[in-house]
Amino acid sequence: MWQLMPGQSLRYHTWDNEVYVLYNDMSGDTHMLDAAAIEVLTALASGPRDATQLAQSLQLDAGLDSARQLAELLSELLRLALIHTTAC
């Protein structure tokens, strides 16, 4: 299961719905993200989800490319300390 880091408020700003700048409340870092990353973070704001639940809420197709892209995005958000994994 994936979830937002506790205390993360998802304060961000966008220009033309293409480039998003998000402030990480926990680290004080600012990150440039794309719309897909913001969609994942917004979905996780409502509570923990596994990759299948995320794919469904984001209306991704069930193809291997979508699953791979979601896994890469989750890995990047984890590296940025915006999300973490939790036991089921």
Automatic annotation (TrEMBL):
Name this protein carries in UniProt: PqqD family protein, HPr-rel-A system
Domain of life assignment: Bacteria
Species for this entry: Pseudoduganella namucuonensis
InterPro entries hit by this protein: PqqD-rel_X (IPR027599)
